[in-house]
Recover the amino acids of this structure.
């Protein structure tokens, strides 16, 4: 019995293992039930095309949740920054135009994040409310500026920007899959091996500890939201360029699946711990479910039910193999609704 | 010039006052701590102990007054936690010195990471040094605790040991212990007191804050008693027995009670 427990503990120490196992089991199940689809490579190439925007958004959200905050505005950034790209792509002529449009799209995400960060860190607005307001506001701005319409981006399929971000490597592999993978590796190092990541973990664990150890908590929170804005804008770029269009409904439907991907990946809702590897596999689970379930032939009506089951299974596995990060979930959710200054207001006795 | 009761001063507070809005939390605090002295700071809840600690450690500034560290005047406008660390003031808090879910090596270096270029952490070196501190400075040996253990796995006494070891590693001249033994068993308290003795042995100064008079008496060279934002007495250990100190505090609090009732 003891051996069994320590074996489980050992497994629990490998980052993202439970969720990787779930993904593997899922694909094996799909291969058995839908061999025609899942034994070929095309379905995987299609996942490489559709999952990256969700994965990219999930990577940023992993940082936010690790810091003990929440950001509901990233899906609006996927609309707003996508629109900003479409607008400037059309507006700026010349060969450098598309690159300027890329930069301005990323900057627009930073702007949204900066405002969020100021609201949370300086005005002590609870992050769930600040970013919920931002979600409505920036979606509204996009709709207004776009005149309520979708904008197709003519001529982009032959542009170098298209090749760089969403081209097909060897004519098969979607480039966005590599961008997302590269970003995941980069952000793993930032979270686990960089000062900023360590600050984020300590702030999510206990902001008072972070403060008395000399971390500038306000500044780190602002950086965090700016970073998440830029990352969401990058997801918007991958999405918009792949689609050759800014859609008026863009970004809708990303919010809950992205959060699901982060949570089934094992990132602690209580803050203080986040798993980039988990989010990576979690995103592929979330992104594969719909197509997979349909391919098995049991019918499209089943997709949500199966999604729910797979999410529950992943989360339970994380708890069994993990160290009970979920226990403090209640107090963390209460924190989302309380001003960020409130845990800073020390008792003076 | 305030009269100096000590030979070489690690810390001197002159007329420090702190107001929170209209409320006076500290009134004309004058306190000196010698460079190898353990001062026991005693006072009830609301006496102003924690406020004083937060001023010393740069969490917030005083409303007025002067602060000297090792004889040098500190610019209180530019004072913060990092500056306090640079001046060699380290704090061990009752419960907010360590990140519970983080591994020990991260806790040793949080806020003062050993970095490679671009702000990346030198994990190998941090782990080596953390391990060295654990074995040599605080004497954790073969208890199944490694630098990769999470703080949540440690007992209360061990946690304070980690905090004290960290403070000593960073060349603290003065270590402030803010209620380090609250909610600990007797055995764990004994461990913490041993860690505090190591501070004294290493020639450093210490301000030890506790509700428990017997702990304070055992470990301190001098007792400073605070009440309602003021220092009301400073007594050397050689001048008072534990029993007399206890009676003094009891009488004092009764005396105040009587006053309050009038």
């Amino acid at each position: 019995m003891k051996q069994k427990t320590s074996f489980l503990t050992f497994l629990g120490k490998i980052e993202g293992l439970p969720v990787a196992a779930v993904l593997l089991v899922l694909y094996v199940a799909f291969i058995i039930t839908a061999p025609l689809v899942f034994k070929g490579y095309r379905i995987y190439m299609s996942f490489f095309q559709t999952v990256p925007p969700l994965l990219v958004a999930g990577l940023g959200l992993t940082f936010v949740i690790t810091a003990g905050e929440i950001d509901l505005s990233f899906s609006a950034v996927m609309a707003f920054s996508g629109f900003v790209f479409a607008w400037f792509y059309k507006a700026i002529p010349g060969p450098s135009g598309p690159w300027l449009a890329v930069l301005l799209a990323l900057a627009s995400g930073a702007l949204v994040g900066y405002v969020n960060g100021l609201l949370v860190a300086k005005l002590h607005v609870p992050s769930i409310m600040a970013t919920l307001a931002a979600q409505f506001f920036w979606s509204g701005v996009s709709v207004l500026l776009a005149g309520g319409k979708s904008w197709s981006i003519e001529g982009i399929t032959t542009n170098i920007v298209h090749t760089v971000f969403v081209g097909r490597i060897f004519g098969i592999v979607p480039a966005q899959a590599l961008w997302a993978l590269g970003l995941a590796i980069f952000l793993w190092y930032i979270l686990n091996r960089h000062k900023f990541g360590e600050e984020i973990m300590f702030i999510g664990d206990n902001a008072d500890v972070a403060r008395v150890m000399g971390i500038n908590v306000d500044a780190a929170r602002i950086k965090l939201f700016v970073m998440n804005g830029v990352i969401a804008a990058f997801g918007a770029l991958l999405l918009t360029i792949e689609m050759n269009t800014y859609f008026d409904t863009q970004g809708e439907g990303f919010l809950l699946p992205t959060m699901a991907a982060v949570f089934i990946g094992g990132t602690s809702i209580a803050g203080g711990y986040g798993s980039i590897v988990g989010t990576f596999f979690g995103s592929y689970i979330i992104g594969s479910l719909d197509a997979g379930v349909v391919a098995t032939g049991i019918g499209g009506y089943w997709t949500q039910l199966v999604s729910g089951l797979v999410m529950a299974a992943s989360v339970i596995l994380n708890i069994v193999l993990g160290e009970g990060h979920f226990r403090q979930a209640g107090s963390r959710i209460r924190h989302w609704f309380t001003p960020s200054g409130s845990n800073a207001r020390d008792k003076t006795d | 010039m305030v009269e100096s009761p000590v030979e070489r001063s690690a810390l001197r507070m002159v007329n420090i006052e702190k107001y929170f809005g209209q409320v006076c939390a500290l009134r004309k605090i004058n306190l000196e701590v010698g460079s190898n002295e353990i001062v026991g700071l005693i006072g009830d809840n609301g006496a102003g102990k924690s406020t004083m600690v937060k001023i010393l450690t740069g969490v917030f500034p005083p409303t007025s007054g002067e602060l000297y560290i090792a004889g040098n005047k500190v610019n209180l406008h530019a004072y913060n936690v990092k500056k306090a660390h640079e001046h060699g003031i380290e704090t061990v808090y009752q419960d907010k010195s360590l990140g519970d879910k983080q591994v020990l090596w991260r806790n040793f270096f949080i806020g003062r990471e050993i970095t490679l270029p671009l702000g990346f952490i030198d994990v190998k070196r941090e782990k080596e040094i953390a391990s060295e501190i654990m074995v040599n400075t605080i004497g954790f040996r073969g208890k199944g605790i490694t630098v990769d253990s999470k703080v949540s796995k440690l007992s209360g006494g061990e946690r304070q040991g980690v905090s004290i070891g960290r403070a000593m590693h960073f060349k603290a001249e003065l270590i402030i212990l803010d209620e380090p033994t609250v909610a600990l068993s007797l055995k764990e308290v004994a461990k913490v007191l041993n860690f505090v003795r190591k501070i004294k042995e290493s020639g450093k100064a210490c301000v030890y804050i506790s509700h428990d008079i017997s702990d304070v008496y055992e470990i301190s060279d001098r007792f400073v008693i605070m009440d309602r934002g003021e220092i009301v007495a400073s007594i050397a250990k050689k001048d008072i027995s534990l029993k007399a100190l206890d009676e003094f505090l009891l009488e004092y609090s009764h005396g105040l009670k009587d006053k309050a009732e009038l």
In short: Chain B touches chain A at residues 20, 25, 45-51, 54, 57, 59, 80-82, 85, 91, 93, 96-102, 106, 110-113, 115, 118-121, 123, 150, 152 (CB under 8 Å).
